[in-house]
Amino acid sequence: MEQIQIVDFKDSYSAAFKTINQEWIEQYFEMEEMDRKALEHPKEYILDKGGHIVVALLDDEPVGVCALIKMNHPEFDFELAKMGVSPKAQGMGVGYKLGKSIIEKAQNIGAKTIYLESNTILKPAINLYRKLGFTEIKGIETPYQRCDIQMIKYIS
Predict the structure, then answer these.
(1) pTM of this prediction?
(2) Residue 108, Cα to own-chain centre: how many angstroms?
(3) 114 - beta bridge partners?
(4) % helix / strand / coil in the chain, to the nearest 5?
(5) Distances in Å between the alpha carbon of 39 and those of 49, 100, 130?
(6) Among 69, 106, 127, 152, which is least packed by CB within 10 angstroms?
(7) What burial letters (b/e) apply to 90-114, b meaning 16+ CB within 10 Å?
(8) Element spanning 144, H or E
(9) Phi first, then psi: what are they for 3, rounded to 5°?
(10) What are the structural domains of the chain?
(11) Which residues have CB under 8 Å from 75's CB, separation 6+?
(12) Angle at the Cα of 14 (from 11 to 19), degrees rounded to 5?
């Protein structure tokens, strides 16, 4: 695990951000309009609006990504989104490191809550979110057809 390094997004990681996410989305679901917006324009859709993206590197190669998207919602400050890990790096703790890094970024900018949407078919992801301190909530409107679970983490 020593060789995994978490770094801030830069433009040269744009293709990896899209590819890593598109890979898991298309494996289980279909790409949706909101996916395309975030994956094709991460700077405009995420970073320029006050969000962050972190990238996991294995020997300088991007193998994981995770975004923190600024929300315009009275209950939630940010959304943890677009987390993906390349199959070659799965089982190495990459998702946990990405999640911890994104939560730390949220804490550092004063966030009180982080929201996420997922699907219960993604059992390893749901287990990871619980390990990171997220709990299930219900009733939030979502643009994603595939969303069947919503979670929140309160930051102290």
Answers:
(1) 0.94
(2) 17
(3) 78, 153
(4) 40, 30, 35
(5) 15, 22, 25
(6) 127
(7) eebbbbebbbbbbbebbeeeebebb
(8) none
(9) -80, -10
(10) 4-154 (3.40.630.30)
(11) 113, 115
(12) 165
Q: The tokens 């057809």 sit on which residue? A: 145
Strands across the sheet with 149-154, in order? 4-8, 52-58, 61-70, 78-85, 113-118, 149-154, 135-137
Contacts (Cβ under 8 Å, ≥6 apart) of 15: none
Q: For residue 50, is it left (φ>0), alpha (ψ between -120 and 50) or beta?
A: left
Structure tokens at 42: 């991460």
- pLDDT tens-place values along the chain, 156 residues long: 458 999 999 999 999 999 999 999 999 999 999 899 999 999 999 999 999 999 999 999 999 999 999 999 999 999 999 999 999 999 999 999 999 999 999 999 999 999 999 999 999 999 999 999 999 999 888 878 899 999 999 997
Residue with tokens 């997922």: 118
Structure tokens at 6: 């978490």
Give the DSSP letter string of 34-97: HHHHHHH-HHHHTGGGT-EEEEEEETTEEEEEEEEEE---SS-SEEEEEEEE-GGGTTTTHHHH
**Strand 61-70 vs strand 78-85: parallel, antiparallel, or unpaired?**
antiparallel
